[in-house]
Design a protein that fits this description.
The protein is an alpha+beta fold and 176 residues long. It has two domains: 45 residues, no CATH class; 102 residues. It contains five helices and seven strands. A five-stranded antiparallel β-sheet has the order 1-5-4-3-2. A two-stranded antiparallel ribbon has the order 6-7. Helix 3 crosses helix 5. The longest helix is centred in the last third of the chain and has 21 residues. The N and C termini lie far apart (66 Å).
């Protein structure tokens, strides 16, 4: 098997399991190369970063706590931190809060949050948006953020918080 040429168009595996299965078949038959896989997988190209300006997280503390709830405990904070792609290449996008790809997965890109006048907005690659938490990362992050915001409000009011799940909806009540 010959490795892909690094000077050619960048490609990634849409599904690591299918690549591993293909690799096992090729190892058994000793024929084929990586290009066969890419041709059958639809020649997907490297994903680009997207900024979701309609999804703003106003409270930094609640955002960091929500990221922890999603399993991302390690974050970097600073001004204009560079984001890196899955191959370790520096991207032009920057952010103030960054979860590095080594804490997300080896095929992932860095996840960032840019500070705007409306709050922190996610800067996430198309690939990671589709695959992190089975494509539900932003939904899960927003849910955890709302829960953390409600918990903070309950603490500030010296009240109690109760949660109730009704179907796919979580109802939160604060008594003070």
């Amino acid at each position: 098997m010959k490795p892909p040429d690094l000077n050619s168009e960048i490609k990634f595996y849409p599904n690591l399991d299918s690549f591993q299965k293909l690799n096992k078949k090729k190892a058994a038959s000793k024929t084929g190369d990586y290009e066969d896989f890419f041709e059958r997988s639809g020649n997907l190209k490297m994903s680009k970063y997207m900024t979701f300006t309609d999804t703003a997280f106003k409270d930094r503390e609640c955002l960091l706590n929500a990221l922890s709830e999603c399993g991302y405990l390690e974050t970097e904070e600073g001004e204009a931190l560079s984001l890196y792609g899955y191959r370790g290449d520096r991207r032009p996008e920057t952010a103030q809060i960054v979860v590095r790809r080594k804490f997300i997965g080896s095929a992932s890109n860095d996840l960032g949050f840019q500070k705007t006048e409306n709050g922190y907005v996610p800067v996430i690659s198309e690939y990671d948006r589709s695959f992190m938490m089975q494509g539900k990362f932003l939904t899960n992050l927003r849910t955890n953020y709302n829960l953390k915001s409600a918990e903070k409000l309950a603490r500030n009011l010296r009240g109690t918080l109760s949660r109730e799940r009704v179907g796919s909806t979580i109802k939160i009540r604060i008594k003070y």
